[in-house]
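Let us begin with a simple case.
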Amino acid sequence: MDTSYRDGSDLPDSPILLRALTPQTLLLATDSSALHLYDLRTSDTTFTTPGPVQTHHPHEDYVSSITPFAPSETSTSGFSRQFFSTGASTVAVLDVRKGITYQSDDLGEEILCGTIIGDKSIVGGEKGALRILEGGVNGLKLGDERKIVVAKGESLDVMCPLPEASRLEETVAVGLGDGNIKFVQVGKKGGVIGTERHHEVEGVVAIGFEPGGRMISGGGNVVQVWERSDDDVDGGAGEANGARHTDSADDDEANDSDDDSSEEETRPKRKKRKRNKGKDRGGSNQIMAFKGMD
């Protein structure tokens, strides 16, 4: 794929996020804030012919998260047509049939992540607090949103709802820039209920849950797989605190020779997306290295 920036630059507009809308359509966000809709039935394998069927710019800078709303009750396909996105210092709602249906005002901080639980849209930013926005797809209610302080002054870079099997309702796992993972309940009496440490130095850049319910976190040169401790059988906050590390790949074990060690020492560190803000066109090597991978 090769697209251009809105400022007319000929430099390639790098893809950032990819979401499957249906088995035939993809939603692709790029570094320039463009949000492209591709139809696999008409596009070739390089996505250059005939190009996206729709392009939107819901934010002034790169898109930091895309989350689908639940399909409407009248949906015949079972797939969502409406998405919630964050980027720069705003949030937006996109309908693939109607285009951008909502754009917020400047929220006063860079919004780095977002997700949806029920009718709550949840966003996290650089100041360390979650904003709980009510209203969902029918219109987000800003101005009277609730805030939950997760880690004052620390960036909230990624988040993911806990699966139903965790028995923790309305709870999200939040990855921080300091390497911690916070478990936060977002109900009316919500707050931080647990903390785990992913990395001593690097921030958390990815969090997800596999079908069996185990949490997977990534950041720096480390991927960790967590599962609930066998001692936590009563539910509640202990389930979050009882996460147990079960597997990892670390850069301390990534070097099998002196040459490999030298190469690792000279490799630039991966920059946080929130600090690039889509402006560093030169780009540094952002490939994450693991043992056994070239």
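The second case is a distinct protein. As before, the sequence precedes its structure tokens.
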Amino acid sequence: MPTGETISTTPMLPSPSTDKYRLGPLVMEKLWRGDHQNPDLNQGPYSTSLAFVEAMAKNEISYVERNADSRMNFYRSSTEPQCPSEAVGLLKRYLNVANAMVPVPGSETSKDITSSTLWHPDLHLDNIFVNPKSKRITSIIDWQWSAVLPLYYQARIPRAFEDPGLILDGAQVSDLPRDYAILPCDERTQCDVMRRSKACQQFYELETSRKNPRHWNALQMNHLELRRRPTRLALGLWDNDNLFFFRKALMEIKEQWTELCPDSGQCPITFSEQELALHAYEEENQQGIGGILKLFKDRWSLSTDGMVDPAEFAQTKAAIDDYRNVFLESADNEAERELFSKLWPYQDTGS
């Protein structure tokens, strides 16, 4: 992006200018990967945000019905496969509550935050070039995951300014610990880094509220993450093996229905007792494995994909093997031991 060029308008373009633009066709990688390239899929243009939200589910239904085969989901069962029809059923329920996933029509900011917006999804410091003399941005790189989508769907704090911890509304940057002066050097450094990180995000939020009201309004949208999570999971639902998280997102929509759609009566979707029991069992297993992954990350900085420094491979593998044996020995019977073996997150592929 050459110096001096702009990709946004401040103030906003007048309504007649924005009304003539429509969302799509989309070039998002998820919509064109592998068999998703089928020309019958609807990549746009879409006339409204609701049309976009519904198209994502309809596309996935078409894809699953044509291409998906039953497979094992060991978080839930070691004997019964998971069928594509379950994914289709969840996607159809998604369509029944799609109006909960977009801003409330007619509100003062709904049109402002649903307008089609070009968004860079990976703004961190390695992707932003700054002239050291003028202190002005000269270029931004890594646009390959960018897309033009409704602003509310993409709005977030950029990675360059995002604090990794949880910042509550109205929270202030904490004071230094009383014993800061006598803390070891590494702990003082950690305190400084945490305070700078929180201050950076809060400064970004303050400047955004003053200078970019469209983005700020989108960030302040009621139940923002709850509304957009199902659509994000619907994209590539089957290939990404996201049925558990997709079902959980729909359950949360159902629980918050009266707040999301206050004038729409009773929520139109339900879940049977059997579905709820299976989901609870799967959630218990997901949380157990999640705890193991967190332990390995905290102790050895081991990522979920198992990548490790070659110099530390032997030591890390030995420690993980010990934990695996303890995990398997915790099984109550041989069937559960076999299930635990299949759930273990770091499988030896023999390669």
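Residues 1-10, 167-171 have pLDDT under 50 and may be disordered. Strands lie at 116-119, 128-130, 137-140, 147-150.
Keep these points in mind for the review questions at the end of the chapter.
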